[in-house]
TrEMBL record:
Membrane-crossing residue ranges in chain numbering: 313-330, 350-367, 402-419, 426-449
Domain of life: Eukaryota
UniProt-recorded name of the protein: Uncharacterized protein
Keywords, ordered alphabetically: Membrane, Transmembrane, Transmembrane helix
Species this chain originates from: Hebeloma cylindrosporum
Amino acid sequence: MIDPLETDFSRFVASVAFSTSVDLTLFEFRKSSSKPPDKWKNFTHPDGSIYFLNESWQIPVITDVYVDDDDPRRRLEGFIEKIFSYIDTYEVIMPAEACLVLEFRQTGKCGYYFVDHSTRCLFWLEEFDAIDTQDFLVHVRVKFTPPLVGHEMKSLYWLHNEYFPELRPFVVDALQELKDVLIHAVGDSLTSPWSNTPYNLDNLQKMLSLVKDIESSDSRGPGSAVVVYRLLHNFYHERLLNLHGEKGARLNVNQSIHPERKKTFIIKIVSPLLLFGPESHIRKLTEMSVDSLVRRHDWDKLLADLTNDWKEFALYATVLLNANVAFLAIQSVDDESAPGYRSPEQRASYFSVVTSIGAIAIGLLLARHHNTSLDPSFLAYRSASMLGLETLAIMYSLPYALLMWGMASFFAAILITCFDSGDIFTVVMMSLTCFTLSILLLWTVTVVYENAPFWQAWPFRAFRSWKRPDGVLAGEGRLRPSSRSKNL
């Protein structure tokens, strides 16, 4: 026997292979005989799967093994006999509301667990390492306390009820608990931009409306139970991830429960070469994948923003490519009087052509891959290390950086042509224009580095201490105190 949390089994991966040829006689016989073997009762999950219940043992036994077939049933009952023999041999006292669940794994082994409905938790007959077991406590690396593990136990308990919703009456207090959780989640999302709820506001409001419909319904079938239990499973699992009720609990979605990771030398070297394009991407990616937790709606919004940017860069690069082709077609530029020689403006334009093509190709490839084959798990895996996020940020900034370098080289080609013309008026006009443009560009870039109330332009802040006038205190929305104000 093995514990039920190993990854060789998935509920939504078919483990039964069906033949393409059908024996009509056999099909009609099985269709007319839907009653399972003696002592076994069958149920159909709202999703369509079949599970079975046997109440003839010491405690109820539940399984999704297809007991209509003799060989799997005999093999399953053999495992059941061994488990109850172990209980009798070691005189294990079972809870009054316990049940046993078994399932066959893809490896051929049989997994099991017990459920205690009175305490709403799962248990086993033997100890196993839950920290290193996949899909259990491996998601967080902290010092576990009983309450923290209890959140995940509650999550697994509701997951069990989601899988087998018809075996027990609908849990009414679960509905009230879920309603309270959703009300808090909606309020938190409305009042905080950094709410750590796993769903966006629109989905939360839909969930709350759905729960209210279930609450007001006179009859609550297995479909309603599955919805309630699944949501409770998800929210209790989020409590484990956010260290709910623990010291250092995660209160904001961008708050990490682990020490901050430092940037590597790679991003420090490459970022200036790419005109600091990776900086904005690494900041956004880091905020989205705190502790490798990526929310679906955040990922969808990131994809929409990135693909829109990449398509725009590809469009701009196409325009720049056409401009370079037209520039190279000018007779005074396309001077081949000296074989094997190209003028500086031609070389600059050639460089711009190559970077424009690179921006178009990389931008379209990134947009295609991210819209067809990548999901939030891609970013979660990348965020396992700082290097993974940094290389991803560098990749995302390539269309922008190549476009900017292409524009700069095309601008250089224009300047070389103008300054080599020998026309004084043209040289003076371009010199003044370039100087003015440089000032405007620097002014635009300084906006990114503003992180304090703006009382004067940044070049003058180091030379003179300006007196701040009375008025609203920036960032706090409170009237600054004045010497002329009177105390009330």
